[in-house]
Amino acid sequence: xxxxxxRLAEASKKLNEMSDEVSQAITEYSDELGxxxxxxPVWPGVKVTIGKDWVESDEDESQYEHWIELGYDKVSGExxxxxxxxxxxxxxxxxxxxxxxxxxxxxxxxPLKDNTRARKIEALSMIPALFDAIADTVEEAVExxxxxxxxxxxxxxxxxxxx
Length: 163
What we know:
With 163 residues, this protein is an alpha+beta fold. 47% of the residues lie in helices and 32% in strands.
């Protein structure tokens, strides 16, 4: 028994040290992204749910599928890597087939750094895909703004020529 306690003490000390490193990395990623001043929420649909999505029934016996997504958003006034808890209303037939009814609903958004240790560890491997999605979103926004600028310039030119 004493050997087990010693193993537990050593392993938990190492786990806490590594968990602190993970939390620090998440904070640094969010801080560094802040320097780019993206200012656009990005939710690429990357699920970060420990285990499986889950289904629950509410008081009127409606069934909802729940999941957690990884993204980038403004939470409490600060842009950060975040998670959001989402759900969809389900219709499950007698054969167990799922049909989604209506729109997905966001229940909460929280900074990844404030999530559970297990969720932070799982999310680490998904951060590169999130950064790709952020870059894609920024590039798409630039393209849209360039189109607007061209259109605006054409309209202003036409207006000035027809004074």
